[in-house]
Amino acid sequence: MSVNLIFSISQHVRDELLIKSFIEYLGCGKIYLNRKIVYFRVTKYSDIYNKIIPFYLKYPIIGVKSLDFKDFCIVAEMMRDKKHLSKEGLNLIQNIRTGMNTGRLV
Q1: Which of 7, 28, 45, 104 is deepest in the core (most CB within 10 A)?
Q2: pLDDT at 105
Q3: Residues 37, 9 contacting (CB under 8 angstroms)
Q4: Global pTM?
Q5: Helices (H), 31-86
Q6: Which of 65, 87, 74, 5 is nearest to 41 (CA)?
Q7: Phi and psi of 63, rounded to 5°?
Q8: Cα(73)–Cα(3) distance, integer angstroms
Q9: Domain 7-101: assigned CATH number
C-alpha cells in the first residue's frame, strides 16, 4: 500500500474561469473537466506542502471542510516525517482518510 496526497476542488463548469485562475495564482495543479464539473487538482507533494497548505493556512476554510483540511495537514506532516513508511503510520493515515469528507461523523 502507498500513500498519495491529492488536493482537489470541484465546481460547476460555469465557474471554470475561476478554477483555472488557481493554476495561475498558485503556480501548480491541473484542470479536469467531467460533464458539468470542473476540477482543480494538485498531486505533487512539494506543491501541496509548499503552496496549497500555506495558502489555506493564511486564508482558512470555514465550516466542516476545515476539519478535513486539518486532517489533510496531519497526513502531509506525517509524510514529511516519513511516518507513512511504517505499518503503524499507514494504519493511522487510513483511519484519518476514512473519517474525512462523507465519512466524518461530526
Answers
A1: 7
A2: 67
A3: no
A4: 0.87
A5: 45-47, 53-58, 65-80
A6: 5
A7: 100, -165
A8: 14
A9: 3.10.28.10
